[in-house]
Write a structure and sequence with these properties.
- By secondary structure, this protein is mostly helical.
- It is about 75% helix and about 0% strand.
- Helix 2 runs antiparallel to helix 3.
- The longest helix has about 30 residues.
- The radius of gyration is 18 Å and the shape is globular.
C-alpha cells in the first residue's frame, strides 16, 4: 500500500511534539528515581552520545543519497536516523529521570563556549521535534514539494542538534 497525502498527520505531529517536549521539561521538576541496584547510570550519557553520533552519520548519508536522487536509500537512512533518535530519547529520559544534573566545571574562555553550544542545542532540540516529524510525515505521504521545502530547514538543524549533542557530552564528560 502506497502512502497517501490524504492522511491527516497534523494531530500526530502536534501531539507528539507537545508530549515529547513536555516530558523533557517535566523531568526538570520531578524528583529523581533511584536506579536499580548495581546499575551504573554513567553508561547512559555515553550511549546518548553514541546514538547522536549514529543519527548524525545517518542524516549525512540520507542527505548524500537524496542529492543523488536515490530515494529508496535516502528513506532507509532517515528511518535509521529516527530509530537512533528514538533510542537516544528513551535513554535520555531514563537518565534524567534517575540522575541529578551535572554542573559544568570548566573555567576560562571555554565556559561561555560550552554554554552557547548547550543553549543552542537545547533550543534547537525542542524545535527539531515538530520539524522532523512534519518533514517525515510529508515524505511518507508523498507530498514531495512540501517535504523538500521543509527538509531544507530540518536537515541542517537536525544535523546541528545531533553534532552538538556529542560535543556537549564530550565537554561535560570529565565532570560526571
Amino acid at each position: 500500500m502506497k502512502p497517501s497525502s490524504s492522511f491527516n498527520y497534523v494531530p500526530w505531529v502536534v501531539g507528539l511534539s507537545i508530549g515529547i517536549n513536555a516530558l523533557v521539561i517535566l523531568l526538570l521538576f520531578l524528583p529523581n528515581i533511584d536506579p536499580a541496584e548495581g546499575f551504573n547510570l554513567l553508561i547512559l550519557p555515553l550511549f546518548n552520545a553514541v546514538m547522536n553520533s549514529f543519527t548524525f552519520v545517518f542524516l549525512l548519508a540520507a542527505l548524500f543519497l537524496i542529492l543523488r536522487k536515490n530515494v529508496v536509500w535516502h528513506r532507509r537512512f532517515i528511518y535509521a536516523a529516527f530509530t537512533t533518535t528514538a533510542l537516544f530519547l528513551i535513554s535520555y529520559l531514563a537518565y534524567h529521570g534517575m540522575a541529578p544534573s551535572t554542573p559544568y566545571g570548566g573555567q576560562g574562555a571555554i565556559r561561555p563556549v560550552y554554554y552557547f553550544i548547550l543553549l543552542t542545542h537545547i533550543v534547537l532540540a525542542a524545535a527539531i521535534v515538530p520539524l522532523a516529524l512534519l518533514t517525515f510525515a510529508r515524505g511518507i505521504t508523498n507530498q514531495v514539494d512540501k517535504h523538500r521545502r521543509i527538509a531544507r530547514w530540518t536537515m541542517p538543524l537536525w544535523l546541528y542538534v545531533s553534532l552538538t549533542g556529542v560535543i556537549v557530552y564530550l565537554m561535560i564528560r570529565p565532570y560526571y
